[in-house]
Specification:
The chain is α/β, with parallel strands linked by helices. It has one domain: Ribonucleoside hydrolase-like (Inosine-uridine Nucleoside N-ribohydrolase, Chain A), CATH 3.90.245.10. 30% of the residues lie in helices and 16% in strands. β1, α1 and β2 form a beta-alpha-beta unit. α1 runs parallel beside α2, α4 packs across α5 and α5 packs across α7. It is globular. The C terminus is likely disordered.
Amino acid sequence: MSDRIPLLIDTDPGVDDALALLMAFNDQRHDVIGLTIAAGNVGLGHTVRNALKLCEISGRTDIPVFAGAPEPLLHPAPDAGYVHGQDGFGDIGYDAPAKQAETEHAALAILRLSHEHAGKLLLVALGPLTNIALALKLDPTLPQRIARFVVMGGAVTGHGNITPAAEFNFYFDPEAAHLVFEAFDRIELADWEATIAHGLHHDRVVGWLRADSDRPGSMPASRKRPGCGRSTAGATTGMPPTPWRWRSRWPRKARWNGPSARWPSSCRASTAGAPAWWTGAARAAGRTRPTSCCATTRTVSRP
């Protein structure tokens, strides 16, 4: 029996999630046992197709892809096609993947795989939490079988990216986020502010993408294109440990233990070099962009 950690990724690729998935495919400590796909960055048809294409070009067609929720639980939400391209991959017009998605719904796949790998499963959510919320409604005991749950989303101190206070994944389906955070006692949260404070340096990313590797799942340098974006890949795969792996216990009533919900006093903040979207509305609102920040951990526990 393999001693690799079973890894199930719930995602909505998107160029940012694509980087995380490629890194996960090439990690030797984890066994990617499936991708469950939701709408988010773009519509479900595109996110499923993108996931299948990533598996194909990485030589990982052994990884099953499960289509899930095509929309949020309650209210329609705008996608991020204006960022990722209308197809989620920059509208480059790639050839359709040869493989099709599995017939099993993503929420059902989450439950089945949680039973097959009970007590060992690492569940990583890179997109809106709709699929996981649906799985919880079908079986509220799901958290008991998850060894570790990592979520990319939210804005702990209220500095968002889709609105001044909201991060995209949680904004897309806030009801799903509420259900999930109520159900799990322990969540490792990489929120928007943390990924801004501890992002991947562009030149280093370019260097990683140019490197050849004989390991399964790696892409040849001739097919790699520089890219950047937030991801939790470093928190779960073979990248060096990162300081923004936040541990969070979500309260039924908000009660903070530890540091106040502000950037540490040692942080340097400025708008120098900030992108236009930051220096516009955010600077007009009197906010600044952190350019360097010490590691910050906030722990919230149930009363």
